[in-house]
Amino acid sequence: MSGSESSANIGKTAFVTGAGSGIGRACALALAASGARVIAVDQDENSLIGLQAECGAEIIVADLAAPERYFPDELRIDILVNNAGIQHVSPIEEFPMDKVDLMLALMLRTPFYLIQKSLPHMYRNKWGRIIGISSVHGHVASPFKSVYVAVKHGMEGLHKTVSLEAGAHGVTANTIAPAFVRTNLMEKQIASQAALNHISEERVLEEIMLAPAAIKRLIEPDEIAAMVLYLCGPHSNSITGSSFSIDNGWTAR
Q1: Which residues pair with 168 in a beta bridge?
Q2: What is the pLDDT confidence band of residue 184, given thresholds at 50, 70 and 90?
Q3: How far apart are CA 216 and CA 135, in angstroms?
Q4: What is the CATH number of domain 3-182+220-245?
Q5: Catalytic pick among 113, 123, 148, 230
Q6: How does the average pLDDT of the chain come out, rounded?
């Protein structure tokens, strides 16, 4: 990140969901280092306290499946990073409906709600950045991940629509679609896939998760955060309605 790009966010307020760990934490740290005022939101208070100590972020402990309880009014923010998410791996016929409802709420309804509450402020200022942390599964499917795939496809469509509505107001909307990132969520997926397929976790990583990738490695959270910074920087004004695949070549097939 060049000096001009890293200084571009000074004076901007960034709102990052799921900021307690993984990708969200990396995004919060990178934005804070760029000079942004960071508001970090997560359900895990201890992880937020650690983040606050590290980068000075303002923290909000919230159940993001019910955002109206915590954010009933307009959000006066300049950058919105919708990152909060969960995963559940199951055959469709066995998928618990309470998990379906939770995943739809957390990863699709909540991003819509936070975008809705953010746009008026962004429109007034004629500047805004809305970034959805999507997934390779926003472009392709995998068995046993029906709801996650549906939600991430929905996130792609949501941000494309926002880009068309918001472009005239100086607001961009894009998604980042990574393959498997080294996070706690990924580690839980490995365990679930091992149980479903009756194989070891090592075989899950090699034979299932990394099998479609040209580059056989996990992606680091900092790699996603670097793309977030670029999309908030001075050279991204014409980038909107796009999805940036950081997937080790998975979708090149």
Answers
A1: none
A2: confident
A3: 17
A4: 3.40.50.720
A5: 148
A6: 93
